[in-house]
Amino acid sequence: MIRSSSALSQISIDETFLRVACSCLAFVLFAVFTTAEADEPAKPNVVFIMTDNHGPWTLGCYGNKDIKTPHIDRLAEEGVLFQRCYANNAVCSPTRATFLTGLMPSQHGVHRYLGAGGAQIGPGAYDTLKEFDTLPSLLAGAGYVCGLSGKWHLGDNLHPHKGFTFWVTKPHGHTMGFYDQKIIEKGKIRLEPNYLTDFWTDRGIEFIEENKDRPFFLFLAYNGPYGLGSSMHERIGNRHKATYADAALPSFPRLPAHPWNHNYGDRIGELRSIRKYAAEISGIDDGIGRVMDTLKRLGLDKNTLVIFTADQGLACGQSGFWGMGDHTRPLTGFDWTMHVPLIFHHPGRIAAGKRVDLLVSNVDFMPSMLEYLGLSWKNRNQVKSPGRSFAKVLTSGQIDNWDNTVFYEFENVRSIRTNRWKYIERFRQSPNELYDLVADPGELNNLIDKPRHAKTQRKLATRLNAYFARVADSKWDLWKGGTSKSGLIMRKLFDNPGPSKKPHKIN
């Protein structure tokens, strides 16, 4: 059949129309998907900054007028500060394990700091968190690149923990000084001649710069200010030497040593140690300022969540103590060893200048991070975290029906702390303790034998024992025949105390 020229023209017009329509449709679909992709919020970077043996009482944003911490104070001014965050153990390894897993020591099995050698370096080294979901392992699974710069102290230090691809750390947990110290870099142990606080900052910034175009997690774990051992008699070598050379630093209490102060009582009021501790805090503050400047320079500051905290607190004269809960006999669970700073900073998502008065614990940190970042647990075989998420307080500003109660365990010491009361119970040792924290914030007046408080004591004891009966893993429950991954200071009290290698005397 022969078609007329008019019919052929119509076919040509129809084909042209179809081609144009298809092109338009493709453009519209591309625009829709591109817009949806653009509207989807980018994963926030995460910088998790942790200091070592550092109470909030040393920081300007928590009321200290002696020690210079302008960059940490600015984090608080531009973010959310938790006034009452408490560690659930007295020493480094257990508290770090809790921050990274959301588990109690009787769940993750790390009850005491890891001593030199043993689990950390050598043929018997092992990763104490290997069987658990951790913050870096879950973030890596969600597409983040993860880096550590600083103190690990959780075992098998030569090799990156799962999730990490950048790994610069220390062979051991204790700190003998901040200059000419051994570090691990590229799988090798070497001596680092420069100031260690600056070294960790330098490597952290290097990691940020290398990964600026993808979601990253940096664990910047300073081994300062520390406050213990020979490191406090080392020279002040950072730029704050002149600032503290003649400083009186009255925020450090000058009280007589408490009878339970096992060691370091001679440091109370000793200006050499006091000034060194203050200078190390200001040195860390300098590093945090450099990290924040780097984020701003790279245009990452508005899409980066920055968290600042410490593994546990430190007494520098409070109630007649210097040190932590392992520097007392009997072992203790006082507020000065538990209280830690906690600040969240994320411009545009977290409100600026907010102070939160909830009673929270480091066991609450991991559940809060997962909710905030939209992540979830993956390992269905591990025990469940007893932590509670406070993520809503970061964004919406309010959490209803929050129970202001935290729990603590350190070998043969367990405690429950509420707004007003702290009850401390000991396994196969005495005394038990009861403190009215409103009337006696220094925890100097033990009310355990006062008949008028017997009902309060019984109620708290019931809650304490019910908590551990519910959450503890029998494998790691020392009070019921379980063992430890880390060895124990009070090993003579337990039936199955774990590794027997004598620990280094300083954690």
Structure description:
This protein has 507 residues and is of the alpha/beta class. It has 2 domains: 45-395, Alkaline Phosphatase, subunit A, CATH 3.40.720; 406-493, 2-Layer Sandwich (Arylsulfatase, C-terminal domain). It has 12 helices and 17 strands.
Features:
507 residues; alpha/beta; Alkaline Phosphatase, subunit A; Arylsulfatase, C-terminal domain; eleven-stranded mixed β-sheet; four-stranded antiparallel β-sheet; 17 strands; disordered N terminus
Superfamily at the CATH H level of the largest domain?
A: Alkaline Phosphatase, subunit A
CATH architecture of the largest domain: 3-Layer(aba) Sandwich
Main sheet makeup: 11 strands, mixed
The total of helices stands at 12
> What are the segments in which pLDDT stays under 50 over at least 5 consecutive residues?
1-13, 20-39, 503-507
How would you concisely characterize the structure shown here?
The chain is of the alpha/beta class.
Give the topology, please.
Blueprint: H1 5-39, E1 45-52, H2 70-77, E2 80-86, H3 92-101, H4 105-108, H5 135-141, E3 145-150, E4 164-169, E5 181-185, E6 188-192, H6 196-210, E7 216-225, H7 241-244, H8 271-297, E8 304-310, E9 315-316, E10 322-323, H9 335-338, E11 339-340, E12 342-345, E13 354-361, H10 365-373, H11 391-395, E14 406-410, E15 413-417, E16 421-426, E17 433-436, H12 454-471
Parallel strand pairs: 1-7, 1-8, 2-13, 3-4, 3-7
Antiparallel strand pairs: 2-11, 2-12, 4-5, 5-6, 8-12, 9-10, 14-15, 15-16, 16-17
